[in-house]
Structures are given as C-alpha cells and as structure tokens.
Design goal:
Helix content is about 45%, strand content about 10%. The protein contains eleven helices and five strands; from the N terminus they run H-E-E-H-H-H-H-H-H-E-H-H-E-H-E-H. It starts with 13 loop residues before the first helix and ends with a helix.
C-alpha cells in the first residue's frame, strides 16, 4: 500500500527499504559521536564502508505462506484440477500441528515473487540472492529449548528457587504439555517463558521464608492450572523417622 501524499506515514515501509538498499549496494556510513559509547571525549565521527560487509536479513513474514499457496494452487474447473486437501491454511485449534506442517510445506517453495507480493521492493530482493525459509518448531525442539541450553529457562527457575534451598522438578509429561500449549497458541519459543511465569508465579512468592524444600510440576499443573506438588521439611523428617 503506497501513499501518494508525501506527508502521510509510509505504511508499507518502502522508505526504510530504500535506505537499507543503499547499505547493501555499498556506501560510506557516518556514525555520529553520540552513538559511540566507548568514546567519552569529543572526536571525529567514524565512517564505515559497507561494500565488503555481509548482510543477513531475517523476519517473521507472518502470512506469507498464503501468498505461496495462492501461487501454487490455482482454482480450475473440470478434470485435471489440483488437489485441495491442503488448500486451507487456517487457524484450526483442533489440529494446529498439522496446519503448521502445511505452512512449512509451502514455505519450502517460497520464491522472490512471493516476497514482492508481500511488500518487499524488487531492488531489495535483487541484492539478497539467497532465500532460506525456517520451519516451525515442533514439540521436540521446544522441549530442547526448555532444558538443553546452559542458561535455559528451566535452569533459571531452578537456580532462583535453589537460593531458598528449594528443589524444582519438572516431569517429562509437564515439559511436553508446555510444548503442546505453545504450539496451540502459535507463540513460538517466546511463549515458553510466559507459560512458566503463569505457572510458577504464586510459587515464587510462597517459597521464600517457608519450609518448602521440593516442588514438582506435573502435567496437570500445566493443563488444568492446579498448584504444583509441594514437599515440606517436615515431610522428609517424618519419612526419616518411619525408616
């Protein structure tokens, strides 16, 4: 959507793309002194030549799979018309994972003309010769993001509770339930933290100053919203006495 009035805001972002195009083509960029944090004394601004800089551009491009679908699937009458089993790319909560797989199928066939139809100017696309689509995160990938990184979200919460001598445990079923909920909401990896925040909000306030020494998050905690299972210091003392 382009506006003929120069005083109207550039909704399509073409002005920004034209500015980025100059960087891609190679130009001298002057960085003002106030944008250089390491320079406390007044000095000359720095000039950078972008000719030999490798640029990698990325974005969400929400809904571009529908443009690819419309290009690939043409409605025709009579014999020989293409199958429309995966024609619709909608928001069906009952089978979200299948819809994401259909979206990924179309994303593999994305071409430059689809990006132009989305709103990217052709000159900008011509300077970016390679187009690589990223597939949706499945359940296994989301669970790995939760647990495997050194500074994962799960590790952060475990560390915070360990400061109050409390052990935080997540069952395998609870991790899968978190991943399923993220897929259903289509919030991606960013949605993992919000789910954990809502799940452990009360717990983070109840543990400090209490005798809670162990917290177990189960599948029911994620799905039904019930409180995690608490174990107090007295519970372990009673078990030791019984033994």
């Amino acid at each position: 959507m382009q506006s003929k009035d120069v005083h109207v805001r550039d909704i399509s972002g073409e002005g920004v793309q034209q500015a980025l195009l100059k960087l891609l083509e190679g130009t001298l960029v002057t960085i003002p002194e106030r944008l250089i944090p390491s320079r406390k004394l007044r000095s000359e601004p720095i000039q950078i030549d972008t000719t030999n800089i490798l640029f990698i551009a990325s974005g969400a491009f929400s809904g571009i799979e529908k443009i690819v679908r419309n290009r690939k699937i043409k409605k025709r009458l009579g014999f020989g018309s293409p199958s429309s089993s995966d024609h619709d790319v909608g928001d069906n909560d009952q089978n979200v994972e299948k819809q994401l797989q259909i979206n990924d199928k179309y994303m593999k066939d994305i071409e430059a003309e689809d990006l132009v139809a989305y709103g990217i100017i052709p000159e900008f696309i011509g300077r970016m010769p390679l187009t690589v689509p990223l597939m949706s995160l499945d359940k296994e990938a989301l669970v790995s993001i939760l647990t495997k990184p050194k500074n994962s979200i799960i590790s952060q919460y475990k560390y915070l509770l360990s400061l109050d001598d409390c052990e935080l445990i997540f069952t395998d079923e609870s991790l899968e339930a978190i991943a399923d909920l993220v897929i259903k909401r289509r919030s991606g990896a960013r949605g993992l933290r919000s789910i954990l925040e809502n799940t452990l909000m009360e717990t983070m306030f109840e543990v400090p100053g209490s005798d809670i020494v162990q917290i177990t998050v189960t599948k029911e905690t994620i799905v039904k919203g019930i409180k995690p299972e608490y174990k107090h210091q007295t519970d372990f003392q009673k078990t030791a006495v019984t033994l």
